[in-house]
Write a structure and sequence with these properties.
Elements: H1 2-15, H2 22-27, H3 37-47, H4 53-61, E1 83-84, H5 85-88, H6 90-97, H7 103-111, E2 113-116, E3 123-127, E4 137-142, E5 147-151, H8 154-167
Antiparallel strand pairs: 1-2, 2-3, 3-4, 4-5
Length: 168
């Protein structure tokens, strides 16, 4: 995953279509310093959940990652900003709960962990499995998509983001 994140960084900076800090341009890196294993453990304790391995691997590479284009892709938050969507943006869950046809989406939103896109046009959400050995779900979520845009995992999402960036 680190190679993909590095390619996203290098491609976006080379294209020069977005605004980056001098440090990002010089380092050719849109990420932050990695999180420590202890910080990840504290996050899991705060959320009272064991996070998926690929998300923890992401945090060990970078504790947050700036998107080249926040109108299209969410920036990933540092650990201190990560939390349950119901605590960060309860209104969005209320909107979806009030539509009976979309109740299954609302239920997933109520359980989801917001890891990207705070104060942006879309979120990146991790949705815990209902069963102990079930699969996590990974959603880019925005009202203009509309609704959820699922991914198979963190790496799958970043590969798609890189492909989109290259085609832009």
């Amino acid at each position: 995953m680190k190679k993909i994140l590095k390619r996203i960084s290098e491609t976006a900076i080379k294209q020069g279509e977005f605004t980056f800090t001098d440090e990002q341009i010089e380092s050719k890196w849109l990420g932050n310093a990695p999180a420590s294993a202890a910080e990840i453990k504290q996050l899991e304790e705060r959320l009272q959940i064991i996070l998926p391995k690929d998300y923890k691997d992401f945090l060990l590479i970078t504790n947050g990652f700036t998107t080249p284009n926040e109108n299209i892709e969410p920036s990933f938050e540092p650990i201190e900003n990560v939390g349950f969507l119901k605590d960060i943006d309860p209104e969005i869950i209320e909107i979806w709960i009030n539509n009976d046809a979309l109740l299954d989406v609302a239920i997933k939103l109520a359980r989801s962990i917001l890891v990207g896109g705070i104060n942006q046009e879309q979120y990146f959400l991790l949705i815990p499995p209902l069963l102990e050995n079930g699969q996590w779900e990974y959603w880019k979520f925005a009202s203009w998509i509309p609704g959820e845009d699922p991914y198979e995992g963190m790496e799958h999402y970043f590969i798609n983001a890189l492909d989109f960036l290259k085609s832009a």
